[in-house]
Structures are given as C-alpha cells and as structure tokens.
Amino acid sequence: MESSRQDLLRLLAHKSFRLGEFKLSSGGTSDYYIDCRTTTLDAKGSRLTGEVFFDEIRQQGWKPQAIGGLTMGADPIVVAVAVVSGELDGFLVRKAEKQHGTGQRIEGFRQKGAPVVIVDDVCTTGASTVQAIEAAREFGFEIVGVMCLVEREEAKGRPSVEKAAAGAKFISVFTASDVRAEHVLQMDDTAPSIFAVTAKCEVCGRAAVTNVPGNRCEGHRV
Predict the structure, then answer these.
(1) Strand-pair partners of 106
(2) Residue 175, helix vs strand vs coil
(3) Under a CB-based contact definition with an 8 Å cutoff, are residues 173 and 160 in contact?
(4) Are residues 62 and 130 both part of a single domain?
(5) Per the structure, how many domains does the chain have?
(6) Which parts of the chain register pLDDT below 50?
(7) Do 210 and 165 fall within a single domain?
C-alpha cells in the first residue's frame, strides 16, 4: 500500500495544508494549518484514508473488531476504514452524553469487552484523542491501538496520548513535517520556470522549454 500512502500524502499537502498565521483550538498560534477533513471527506481521499489505516492496522498485528474516535475529526476516518476493510465496525464518541433518548455517548458499535482501535485526524495537544480513549475505556472497550492521520510534533501531544493509551501503541501515519515538506515540493513544482531563451536541452541540444529539474526540451521534459 506504499502507493496509496504516497498518494494520500500528496492529497493532504495539496488540499489540507496551508501556510500563514493561524490560531489553534489549543489557544496557541502556528505558521501553518492542517484541515484533514478536506482530504478525508474527498472521494479519492476517503478511499486512500481507508486503505492506509487498514493496512497499518494489519501491519501492527492488531485484531480489532471496530475502530472509532471523537466526533467529528474521526468520523470520516471511521467510515472509510469500515467500508474499505469490509470487516471492521465503527463507533463514534460524542463530546458529551446526549440529553435525550438513551443518553449514550458511544454511537454505533457497542459490544463491551471488544478490542478496538482509536483514531483521530490531527493530534496537536492530544486532547481529543485522550477524550476518545477515556470514553471508550469507560464504556468497556479494550483498546489495542491508537492512530492519528497527522501528528503535530511541536505541540507535544504524544506523551499525553501514550499515557492515556496505557500500553497500547500510538501510531501517526504522517507528521506535520512530512505534509509540510510535500506541500513545499508541490509549490516548487508549480512555480514558473525562468530560463534564458538561448538555453539548450541537456539531452539533445534543442531549445529548452523548462529548467526544472534541468534544461529540457519539450520531448525530454519530466
């Protein structure tokens, strides 16, 4: 699934990553922002997300019956993995118990004692992931693994998640540095090429039409 993983990274960098000055939900500020939902709710992005998460779950040797996480960042990931896998059920964790009906906080799969994997889209401080872990454990699930799509390393949320996971392994599919590097690479690739009109193709000697990655004619451009 390496091609799916690379395609997902490219899509995140293109659709979900932005440079600028942003205020985070944690109260801090950052020179970049990642909105994973523009990728996980994209038709192609949803399929890729399901494939990459399910493949990682199998590589880790986890045997969950279901996956779930805190609404709403986890919602599209849960659905994507359930559909792609054809075998894992999904559940969603409300941020608070609803005040009507059954009043339950866990929606969807509800088999006490079942092994589950907790998922999230972005891990910054880890607060939303920790909430999902605590709610799932309180309900009676056995947590066998924790995953997030993108980990913002600078916010140091990993220790909080690992502490709450209490021995269950925490995996991040990508780091923010991975997505940022791919975003910058894409920006470089779309930048206009500037070169002397007398430049010759390094391969055949004909007039060059681009200098990225080197002087190339139309027939030898990459």
Answers:
(1) 93
(2) strand
(3) no
(4) yes
(5) 2
(6) 193-197
(7) no
Residue 74, judged by CB atoms within 10 A of its CB (0-12, 13-18, 19+), counts as buried
For 145, other C-beta atoms within 10 Å of its C-beta total 22
Give yes or no: residues 140 and 38 share one domain: yes
Predicted confidence (pLDDT) per residue in 7-66, tens digit: 999 999 999 999 999 987 767 788 999 999 999 999 999 999 999 999 999 999 999 999
Contact criterion met (CB below 8 Å) for 86 and 122: no
Distance CA 180, CA 199 (A): 32
Q: Are residues 198 and 165 in the same domain?
A: no
Same domain, 182 and 197: no
Which residues make beta-bridge pairs with 200?
207
Q: Same domain for 52 and 118? A: yes
- CA gap 68, 65 in Å, rounded: 10
| Cβ-contact 73, 121 below 8 angstroms | yes
Question: The CATH number of the domain where 88 resides is what?
Answer: 3.40.50.2020
- What's the pTM value of the predicted model, to 2 decimals? 0.82
| H or E segment to which residue 17 belongs | strand 17-23
Enclosing domain of residue 69: 2-188
Two tokens, residue 143: 């947590």
Residues 6+ apart with CB under 8 A from 35: 16, 18
